[in-house]
Amino acid sequence: MNVSESEQKLFNFISEFIKSQRFQDKIKEIRKNLEIPKNGYLLPKNHEVFLVDFLLITVHKYLPEFKVDKIKPLNLAIKGLVSEIPIADSSINNFFTLYTLFNKEFYELFYGGLDITGLCKVEDIYDFIAEYQFIAPPEEAIEIIKKHFEAYPIVIKLNPSISQNALISFIKKHWTKIQFHLSQYKNGQTKLGKLKKKNSKIAERDEFIYQNRDKNGKEIRGLVQEKFGVNLPYEYIPKIISREKNKRQKA
């Protein structure tokens, strides 16, 4: 599925967040506390259905090893984990729950609805309010809604009669005003929206080099040549390892 720049920037942020040492340490701790295997459970054979139908409360249907009494502690752990993601959405919670359980990044979870989670979001406000009225007690729903509006503080109200051209024209005309409102809420610390997607082959190569960092330069060079068909100069290898390490520490 093609994604917009808005969605890709969120995916880039999540990908870098997962690689960070801080995140990996937290995942190890959660798995240890909940007696989840160090590298996660094996995926169920029918995991495609599992993904479409995913709800934490029904996870034991597909994964009998994960006991019902672990659902609440896992839910609380995930809430703490995603508090560092500056976008509030149930698909993000599900994404990190599945990563915790299976050690795999299921980006397809973000394609489940009518729109994709990203820096922008199309939403029917009446559906949004109704959803949280039914799934949570009032005090919890208020906190969820508050977090949602912290992630998306600026609203463009659309009348049902609006056309695509009229909307584009409106945004262009009022972009200075929109920028001003956005600047009131921007967090200078977060990298969300700033991360650019590296060429996927280069990203895969650099990740491979980092995962084999315990080997010597000659071994790594040979493995890279074998896997990617690239003759890397020896001096590039420590630079790539250092860059990848710094990325994980800063994420």
Mean pLDDT: 78
Strand content: under 5%
- Number of DSSP strand runs: 0
Low-pLDDT residue spans: none
Could you give the order of the helices and strands?
Answer: HHHHHHHHHHHHH
Q: With helices defined by DSSP (H or I, 4 residues minimum), what is the helix count?
A: 13
| Major sheet details | none
Report, as a whole number of angstroms, the end-to-end distance.
27 Å
Described by the principal axes of the CA atoms, the overall outline is globular
Describe this structure as you would to a colleague.
With 251 residues, the chain is an all-alpha fold. Among the domains are: 5-111, no CATH class; 200-250. It is 58% helix and 0% strand. It contains 13 helices and no strands. It has helices at residues 5-19, 21-33, 47-52, 59-62, 71-82, 90-102, 125-135, 138-151, 164-173, 175-183, 200-211, 217-228, 236-250. Helix 11 packs across helix 13. The two termini are 27 Å apart.
Short description:
By secondary structure, the chain is mainly alpha-helical. It has helices at residues 5-19, 21-33, 47-52, 59-62, 71-82, 90-102, 125-135, 138-151, 164-173, 175-183, 200-211, 217-228, 236-250. Among the domains are: 5-111, no CATH class; 200-250.
